[in-house]
Amino acid sequence: MFSKFFVITAGASLAAAATTNTNLQSVFPSPSGTTALAAVRTITAGQSLDGGMKQWDRSPSTCNEQAEGGDSDAVFLLADGATLSNVIIGPNNGEGVHCLGTCTLNNVWWTDVCEDAATFKQKSGTSYVNGGGARNADDKVLQHNGAGTVAVKNFYAENVGKLYRSCGNCGTQYARASTFDNVKVVGGDVVAGVNGNLGDTTSVKNSCLLSGTEACWLYKGVTSGEPSKTASVADGKTCATSGVKSSGC
């Protein structure tokens, strides 16, 4: 099914590469230009794309509010070991980024999240989100459907629901891990929603959570139907916190 997709291979990165700033930034960058894709763009296994700080989006739009989309609704599809850097993702897409295996997202920004900003489908290993940010997500920003670990560092989120959600009702479930280091969330509901009954673990450290944003919500994950929330606080086991501030940061 991928034959119709645009593919990025070695040596196909943009010539005018931007500086990759993976520090915590709380101001959304201005795009250096715009690119509208008719189909999802694929980065092949182990390869990299530097987006040059352009705003990348889909045309026509694939955003269908909170309706669940698939790989073809994304802007970028990353194969195992791929890296995406210096990209601003616009509002006219349903899924943003899909990682089929482990991936690295460096300085990636989402201006207006539709269904999800990024979805992680790896069967093992660690995916990294370094720097960047997202805003205006009615529900989730980072969706973890596969296994392994998602490690988030120096990320900024504004006006979002959940910064991260371990899938609550995937047909195949895993014990997932996630870490959040030096994230700043303004006007969010929660940093991480995780399934305590399935062996999930998460940690939130050295972070700034403002305007009522909570660190963790714990759920009872299922393979069909809807998951149920079991707690709204860190329990020190499924969810551990340290150095988290709610003011003055």
Automatic annotation (TrEMBL):
Subcellular localization, as worded in the UniProt entry: Secreted
Biological process annotations from GO: pectin catabolic process
Broad class of the protein's primary localization: secreted
Superkingdom classification of source: Eukaryota
One term under GO cellular component: extracellular region
InterPro entries named in the record: Pectate_lyase_PlyH/PlyE-like, Pectin_lyas_fold, Pectin_lyase_fold/virulence
Pfam families: Pectate_lyase
Top enzyme category: lyase
Family: Belongs to the polysaccharide lyase 3 family.
Listed EC numbers: 4.2.2.2
Keywords: Calcium, Lyase, Secreted, Signal
Stored SUPFAM superfamilies: Pectin lyase-like (SSF51126)
Cofactor: Ca(2+)
MF GO annotations: pectate lyase activity
Main function: Pectinolytic enzyme consist of four classes of enzymes: pectin lyase, polygalacturonase, pectin methylesterase and rhamnogalacturonase. Among pectinolytic enzymes, pectin lyase is the most important in depolymerization of pectin, since it cleaves internal glycosidic bonds of highly methylated pectins. Favors pectate, the anion, over pectin, the methyl ester.
Species whose genome carries this gene: Lophiostoma macrostomum CBS 122681
Descriptive protein name: Pectate lyase
Catalytic activity, as annotated: Eliminative cleavage of (1->4)-alpha-D-galacturonan to give oligosaccharides with 4-deoxy-alpha-D-galact-4-enuronosyl groups at their non-reducing ends
Biological classification of the source: Eukaryota, Fungi, Dikarya, Ascomycota, Pezizomycotina
Signal peptide: 1-17
